[in-house]
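Consider the following assembly input.
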Amino acid sequence: MLRVSSNPVLDTVVKLVTTAVLMFAFVFVVMVPLYDVLCDALGINGKTSGQAYTAVQAGVDESRTITIQFVATNNEGMPWEFGPSVTRMLVHPGASNDTVFHARNPLPRPMVAQAIPSVSPSRAAAYFHKTECFCFNQQPLDGETATEMPLQFIVDRDLPADIKTITLSYTMFDVTDMVGGAVAAR
Amino acid sequence: MGAHHHGPAKGLSRWLFTTNHKDIGTMYLWFSFAMFILGGAFAMIIRAELFQPGMQLVEPAFFNQMTTLHGLVMVFGAIMPSFVGLANWMIPMMIGAPDMALPRMNNWSFWILPPAFLILASTLFMEGGAPNFGWTFYAPLSTTYAPPSVTYFIFSIHVLGLSSIMGSINIIATVMNMRAPGMTYMKMPLFVWTWLITAFLLVAVMPVLAGAVTMMLMDIHFGTSFFSAAGGGDPVLFQHIFWFFGHPEVYIIILPAFGVVSQIIPAFSRKPLFGYDSMVYATASIAFLSFVVWAHHMYTVGMPVAGELFFMYATMLIAVPTGVKVFNWVTTMWRGAMTFETPMLFCMGFLVLFTIGGFTGLMLSIAPADFQYHDSYFVVAHFHYVMVAGAVFSMSAAVYYWLPKWCGRMYNETMGKTHFWISFIGFNITFFPQHFVGLAGMPRRIPDYALQFADFNMLSSIGAFIYGASQILFLYNVIATIVAGKPTSDEKTWDGAEGLEWTVATPAPYHTFETPPQVK
């Protein structure tokens, strides 16, 4: 067995303390990144990519029509008026689609918001590509002003055949107080 | 008197500065009993509120603090320290060592515990109240929506985690380096084996718990977003990290209990333990499996089907080594010359009730069925069958079994048996009806309930008061034994008991095995 010291008790203690320290580090440097990597790789948890998708010309599959539903929710305490311009769209896989969400800050002070997307069924998340999304960045908005926020997306032609409807949900968070801190926008 | 034959120092300094494993074990045991009473008082408030439907005695916010503190105090304050205390007392005597390997660290690991729980209990008097997010402290309840006292809670978790890690390192160092000549690993008593494996589990997962609360601290005070979706984090990540600690934690609680039962059943069956080797391997298998089943606590978070299947089958696999243990205990009793003194009664109670808890655990492991059971009183019934009837019953058995060796006085057998029967009946009246209300849909951690659950809840509360009262009898019996029990100087209190601890004088002298015994 590996010996780190001539005193056997000290030897055991050094190894165990090392194990405990490594397990503490394991949480931060392995578990947290691994969770994100697994969610991305397996497309689970309804997470869509946080990066803009570069469209590839693959042609439009007009034989299939997919219903896209848009849901907008405010997180607790978020006062913005926030919603999709249309709640439902019929799209063909492979085609590029545009829509806008509108938002209004009713308070007299500037605020910053962050929208977090989630796709249901979660299996569809990997096939829902956003070429442009307001959720890629934080959205600053002056007091008592309104804005239109664009969303451009393509449904992948490889979307499993049994998926007929995809629901894209956005939750709007107030991150005014977090701006300046470490914020990983998604 | 030779220079190295010190007796204990006098007065308070004996306890403050002691490095003696028996003194420290005693302090651990008394401390854990005090926490058992405190956690029990919280439980009594919960059951009093639930005695009738509607809001009766306490505010909902206070009720939430009670469920949270009851869980935290019982798990970290009562059960874990009680087994550490037992390990301190018994492991050196069982392996023929003069003391623990690191006596000064032993003192330190005990003495940081009371301040940790003082801090935790003091949150009750803080503005905004004590932690109210359940003992599992899921984010964002414990971060975004937590009361300000959560920072004190985090600090106390850090401190008691440190205490557990130091205690475990000490136990491993003792078992690996201090065994008497001839005491090979496969000759060690099962209590030592189960504790050795438990200590490895603790060293592996207490740092994970520390990591989880550190992330909470950073999210709350330093602007990180580990568990905040707004900043790119994910609250579900918290549950993964928590249960990666939390599932091994339930075996940390129950494995030493298995060890105790494996010492006591052979003694009162007057037969050696059946299948010693398979017991050791079963313990190791349970410990290994405990690391790959954590997500069965969170089937409803929206995992992919493949994940649900993996965690379901892996969880069911644990029933195999656990079944090996139960069958070995039953087979040990088979055709033994059995007698039913109090320690044996508690072990038999353990065997029956723990097996029921194991079966409900199997029911909960079935992912599709769990969607109905999740967060219902069925879960509450399940884990009280394994925690109370498992860990606490075996701890009571251990106290009755070794108390004569510790203090040289015999406890009152009639009172002991009365304690057992009141506990057994009270426990079942409390928790058996909770299976039914849980299956019928009563959610846990809610201060009110629908009218159709009223009768079973009243029954549950009555049972809880009976069970709680029986612990006062236990306390009285232990104190009466120490103060005025019938003196005994038999080295072997029980004629069927085996092991080195029964070869030393009764009561156990302050220092034992200063010259190591020869183990054949």
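The beta strands of chain A are 66-74, 81-84, 88-91, 96-104, 111-120, 128-133, 139-141, 146-155, 165-174. Ask yourself how this observation constrains the way the partners meet.
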